[in-house]
Design goal:
single chain; mainly alpha; two-stranded antiparallel ribbon; globular
Length: 313
């Protein structure tokens, strides 16, 4: 189970990136599938080449952010729809990732990674390593909270809430979209760089379908903790990532399910979370056990922005 939670904490970084685009910016970004592998491949190639693992991990963050930059430019400067722009970038990154890695798989066996010190002290696959990775995820979450609390962060929230109104107030929505997409995909690339080091390899197909993992984490976490406050909404992403990995872990222990059913399980989990989160009885239950939630027949807002989802009288 510790291995599962380790992955959950690392995938939480990816989920936080999806949270920024899907919940905050209201941008359908599928670049994730490509930028995850970009971060993983960049870090793996640099580590094999002798670069310090920490420097290689940081490089994975910036490599992933470049994918978000391309998507942002396609959308804002060439006026391509968000979904199509991200799909085009994702497809292009497949070839770019092969160029970066030089082959379909880069092994990290026998080389030092950021997890080598933990392994040397016998802390891998233990509650100690889970705690350390949880702290890493919490630091990333707090940095995102701080970012969203700045004037620029409020502009990002306004862009996601109502881009037309944001533009009328003098906000450069093109800039907010590009910067947020870069930050989000940087987190995705960072997640890929760390997971490649944890698993001991970077593979060209390791990012396929990960947008579903991110969405599942965001939706499940927000269904549990709600979206009324930004602090809890972002914390819910980490909780959702851990819950998602645990659901996969226990589901695969059943005899009639196998690893090839992971995508089906993920899709089913997202559907269940979406349906359950809109259930009045479930919402009422969380309202009773959670003091920050309020009994309300109306659906919760998608964003933790005052006035989101409310209509003018």
């Amino acid at each position: 189970m510790q291995n599962t939670l380790e992955l959950g904490m690392l995938y939480a970084l990816l989920a936080l990136g999806v949270f920024l685009t899907y919940r905050i910016l209201n941008f359908a970004d599928l670049t994730v599938d490509g930028s995850f592998t970009t971060g993983a491949g960049t870090a793996a190639l640099l580590i094999v080449g002798g670069t310090h693992p920490l420097a290689a991990t940081v490089a994975g963050f910036f490599a992933g952010s470049l994918g978000g930059l391309v998507t942002g430019l396609l959308h804002t400067k060439l006026h391509i729809e968000p979904l199509l722009a991200s799909i085009l970038t994702m497809i292009a990154l497949w070839s770019v990732n092969l160029r970066i890695m030089g082959k379909a798989n880069v092994s990290l066996l026998g080389v030092d990674t950021v997890f080598t010190p933990l392994a040397a002290h016998g802390m891998m696959s233990s509650w100690g390593s889970v705690a350390i990775l949880a702290v890493l995820a919490l630091i990333a979450k707090l940095l995102i909270d701080a970012f969203l609390a700045t004037n620029f962060g409020l502009a990002v929230q306004s862009t996601g809430d109502n881009p037309t109104m944001a533009s009328s107030l003098g906000i450069s929505t093109d800039t907010t979209k590009i910067i947020t997409l870069m930050l989000a995909n940087g987190l995705v690339g960072l997640s890929g760089a760390l997971i490649a080091q944890l698993q001991g390899f970077a593979d060209i197909q390791m990012g396929v379908g990960l947008i579903l993992v991110g969405l599942a984490s965001v939706i499940v976490g927000n269904a549990i903790l709600g979206t009324r406050f930004m602090f809890l909404a972002s914390l819910g992403v980490i909780v959702g990532s851990a819950v998602y990995r645990l659901v996969i872990y226990f589901a695969l222990r059943w005899d009639f399910l196998s690893p090839q059913d992971m995508k089906l399980i993920s899709a089913a989990l997202v559907v269940i979370a979406l349906v359950v989160s809109q259930s009045k009885s479930v919402r009422g239950f969380f309202a009773r056990v959670s003091p920050w939630r309020k009994v309300d027949a109306a659906p919760e807002p998608l964003l933790a922005v005052p006035g989101k989802g409310e209509e003018e009288p």
